[in-house]
Amino acid sequence: MTVIEQIQQAGHPLISVEFFPPKNDAAQAVFTNGAVELIGLKPDFVSVTCGAGGSAAGPTLEISKQLGTLGYKTVIPHCTCVGMSRDELARSSDALVEQGFQNIMALRGDPPRGEKVFKPAADGFRYASELIAFLRERHPQLCIGTAGYPEKHPEAPSLEADILRLKEKVDAGADFITTQLFLHNPVYFKFVEKCRDAGITVPIVPGLLPIISLEQIKRMQTFCEFHVPEVLLHNLEAAQNDPVKMERIGLYWAIEQISELVESGAPGIHLYLLNRAKTAFYPELFACLSRVRK
Ligand code: FAD
Fold first, then answer.
1. Whole-angstrom Cα distance, residue 61 to residue 76?
2. Structural domain boundaries of the chain?
3. Residue ID of nearest Cα to ligand 1 atom 37
4. Which end of the chain is more exposed for a tag (fewer CB within 10 A), N or C?
């Protein structure tokens, strides 16, 4: 089933989880164990990144197939414009459709690490909207997801300008939006309001990262734009010598975010677990996620 059909038919917000392809054998073992465990969470769909954060593109399609074999019913491979010509994108999207994938996340992609500016490949695309238009024409049946930025994309001159670009992606054929992580729900509520005012009508799924440390926040802020609420920052700083306490602070923060988002009618909760399955099984978070489906 496509994600958009699931959103329309589920009758409750969808739970989804993002994986990234492991980079070596040790990471592969962690990934496989985590993926096996996470089936217990019964996510409505999972997605697999492609070169996120400027890393080299991993075997997204292979990992997506592995997740299907493990029992995940809906797996969404990400597809980016990084280093890909139109012909290559045509071949890789054809392969994905031939393998039975019905959904795709279409992104421009981050510039490779060490490079500040995104450079399109020869005969490739400069913006995600171009990739989406290409995929929509080539595979009309595909359900296409795209990225939204509640605190604007780092390169965008303003949130308003970025939302106009987001509208172009939806007009090009995107069926749903998944947001960049945010730690302050009012940011998402305002973003959704502005998107609706701009004529964007597709579901906007909030993306959440259960924070585990101050260091993690700093790392994420090198490629994502999000602000950290004073109170969260203060509590994490006070606990910075106690990793277990920091993790619990992040966990409870995420639980409060989820509860409020679900209450407000969000179409789903997309979890950036960074392949750490353990996070989802903290009893309090697991219970909170289980309540989402009721
Ligand atoms: P775009 O929508 O093309 O936007 C990029 C910038 O260009 C924005 O500032 C936008 O305002 C501007 N822009 C767009 N169109 C125009 C135009 N016509 N003229 C002028 N300016 C324009 N990255 C990966 O590498 N791999 C992944 O798997 C991945 N998964 C992600 C999943 C989610 C849910 C999210 C939120 C992000 C993900 N990213 C991933 C990160 C993403 O690739 C980066 O944020 C990237 O820098 C922008 O991608 P985009 O698709 O949003 O680009």
1. 9
2. 12-292
3. 147
4. C
Asked whether the whole model's pTM tops 0.90, one would answer yes
CA of 259 relative to ligand 1 center, distance in Å: 28
Per-residue pLDDT of 35-76, as tens digits, reads 999 999 999 999 999 987 666 667 999 999 999 999 999 999
Distance CA 234, CA 238 (A): 6
- Count of residues making up the chain: 294
In the block, which residue shows the tokens 């309540």?
291
Structure tokens at 288: 């909170």
The verdict on the CB of residue 164 being under 6 Å from ligand 1 is no
- What does the pLDDT average to over 127-134? 98
Q: Please, which residues have CB within 8 angstroms of residue 233's CB and are 6 or more apart in sequence? A: none
Is 156 touching ligand 1 by the criterion CB < 6 Å? yes
For residue 1, what pLDDT is reported? 87
Q: Taking the CA atoms of the chain, what radius of gyration do you get in angstroms?
A: 18
* Residue 287 Cα to ligand 1 middle (Å): 33
Task: Check pocket membership of 189 for ligand 1, CB cut-off 6 A.
Answer: no
For the domain covering 12-292, report its CATH number. Answer: 3.20.20.220
pLDDT at 225: 87
Residue of the CA atom closest to atom 42 of ligand 1:
109
Residue 101 clears pLDDT 70, i.e. is over it? yes
18 is catalytic: yes
Q: Residue for token digits 């958009």?
A: 4
164 C-alpha to center of ligand 1: Å? 13
Q: Percent of the chain at pLDDT above 90?
A: 87
